[in-house]
């Protein structure tokens, strides 16, 4: 800054300012006013800082774009700063190999994603298809328990032109009830995810679907998946304690309108229309504490670090 426009006070002005402050402090001390002000200030209610939310952060196993072994991938996730990795199940891994990599790295496995729920849907008209879906769900429940997880993410059914809504509702519940005793025995809950499956489109219906199946079932709330047709905080308010875990991604209504439906997902966490401050306020109000899992395009260490940074900012909004 040029000398002629500097705004610092000259030395004599600073001395006068310091003296004035000193005289004021002396006056307050000698008259007792300072003590009174201090006492009054102490009596005023002080806003307490908001406690840090007790939400742990995970990512899906398939997002880890470095390493060729379980150990290397778990170590990469831990190095970046993630607390956990969500696995798919059924999968091709030996259980002991997963547990060894988990123990060696200190990473947690909060749950698994049913890897056959799109292929072998529980609302299919074929009894054989549904039976394979049930078998896959049972495997996922057992794997989850073995890994020390607490939830299996499940897409309970798919509605389309050939699969009527009411039949998918009835069939899927019938099949899920078959595995509830196993889920209870293992201490693992089934967490339904809201996806673009034309099924359970209202949070009130989603809550009812859970309640009809009982306490072994809850919701794996995917915030980004809701933005197309809802406001995510409304689902939080309606589902409340039924929310077992969160999926974190983003969605842009502008990109949807300008470029197409699926283009809405092509935006980084925090840059879309999820409304994270409203979502987190609603989660605070229902007392949510648990896990949040990123579900976006992954990559190497730098990309994973960026995801974690954005995810953390969203969850602390």
What does this structure look like?
The structure is a single chain. With 317 residues, the chain is an alpha/beta fold. It folds into 2 domains: 9-43; 55-315, Divalent-metal-dependent TIM barrel enzymes (TIM Barrel, Alpha-Beta Barrel), CATH 3.20.20.150. It is 48% helix and 13% strand. The protein has 12 helices and 8 strands. It has helices at residues 11-31, 33-43, 70-80, 95-105, 127-147, 165-186, 203-213, 223-226, 232-239, 253-259, 276-285, 301-315; strands spanning 55-60, 84-89, 111-114, 151-154, 189-193, 217-222, 243-248, 290-294. The chain has an 8-stranded parallel β-barrel, surrounded by 5 helices. The longest helix is centred in the middle third of the chain and has 22 residues, at 165-186. The two termini are 38 Å apart. Residues 1-48 have low confidence and may be disordered.
List the helices and strands and how they pair.
Blueprint: H1 11-31, H2 33-43, E1 55-60, H3 70-80, E2 84-89, H4 95-105, E3 111-114, H5 127-147, E4 151-154, H6 165-186, E5 189-193, H7 203-213, E6 217-222, H8 223-226, H9 232-239, E7 243-248, H10 253-259, H11 276-285, E8 290-294, H12 301-315
Parallel strand pairs: 1-2, 1-8, 2-3, 3-4, 4-5, 5-6, 6-7, 7-8
Helix pairs in contact: 3-4, 3-12, 5-6, 7-9, 9-11
For the record, give the distance between the C-alpha atoms at the N and C termini, rounded to a whole number: 38 Å
Largest sheet: 8 strands, parallel, barrel
Count the strands?
Answer: 8
Average pLDDT: 88
Within the CATH hierarchy, at the fold level, what is the topology of the largest domain?
TIM Barrel
* Radius of gyration, taken over Cα atoms and rounded to an integer in Å: 27 Å
Q: Going across the major beta sheet, what is the strand order?
A: 1-2-3-4-5-6-7-8
CATH class of the largest domain: Alpha Beta
